[in-house]
Amino acid sequence: MDINATLIGQMLGFLILVIFTWKFIWPPLLGAIEERQHKIAEGLAAADRGQKSLEDARGQADGIVREARDKAHQVLDQASKRSGELIDDAKQTAITEGERLLTAARAEAAAEAARARDALRREVAALAVAGAGQVLGREVDAATHAQLLEQLAAQIEKA
Amino acid sequence: MAGSSSEYIPHHLTHLKVGEGFWSVHADTLIMTSLLGIAFLWMFGSAARKATAGVPGKFQAFIELVVEFVDGQIKEVFSGDRSFLAPLALTIFVLVVFMNTMDLIPIDIPGMLAGAAGAHHWRVLPSADANTTFAMSITVLLLVIYYSFKAKGVGGFTHELFSAPFGNHPALWLPNFALNIVELLAKPVSLAMRLFGNMYAGELVFMLIALLGFAWAGALADGNILGFALGFIGQVLLTAAWAIFHVLIILLQGFIFMVLTIVYISMAHEHH
Question: What is the pTM of this model?
Fold first, then answer.
């Protein structure tokens, strides 16, 4: 252990090193480190925000899809109800129409029968008048014997 | 290489000394320290100049790793302003590690190179020179005293010197003061002697292992093949083993010097 002036030289050299490090080396290095830490923290925060907004959007999308599905169900229900109603209406209309047609046909048939009976009666009356004419040997005037003929016709009609 | 084993070790423990008495210097220590200091400034300075907050290169990342390590060590111990203490600790850590690393250079090579350049002695390990370790520890002591005055004021620090640890009583002023002076002086002595002792001893072990070279050379000259083989393999294995173990000591001593400096300076800020 030989202590000599080397000590003084080493002290001065050491001081210079320390001061140089203090002034020129430490500040930029630590500054860069801290700035990067800041950037990384910001990046992580931004990533978190992005994640959160993604989740929000996903939730919104789910809501929209659910709404659309509900609406579709509603429309479907309405449509099936409406078609049922339409079918029922149509059935009802058809039944009514059928009954109406049947009634009309019956009425027509009845009217036809009445007409036929009427015509028959007239013919029978005419035949009866002609027969009576033949029996009497002379012509019966339809106008003079109208009352008689009418009575006859009414009797035939009753028969 | 020196002629015999008895000359070998003293030869390797002699500095390249210029001058006589106290006003002489160890040229090898000064030059090696300067080179290592420049290497430190160049390494960290170039990283600092190119430092960006973007993605760091491998070199910048490594330098930042060291810087953050040192900064973290201080944060654990000291809560005050780190703007000077941190670069001081970084300088101490890196410089001590750089100086200690010189011990891993094969022990005869620096001497051979120096001999070729005309110097008879060349000790390559500046931290095995007490002048270096005391220069650093005395600087630390001066900083401790400076920070004591700065943190407590002239009156506060003087008061503490005379009234702690036993109490403020006229009869206790002198014992208090004596104890505080011893405590203050013990700091640089323990710092310097610990580093010096470790590196000196480590260097000496390398020299002792190197003495096996004389043994196997002698055995070879005598035609003793077994002795040659044992000596040769022993030297290679022991040198490698000690060098690997020494890496731990190199880093540990740098770390201890740095941490104790931090502790001493943070203690200077504390009020009793």
Answer: 0.75
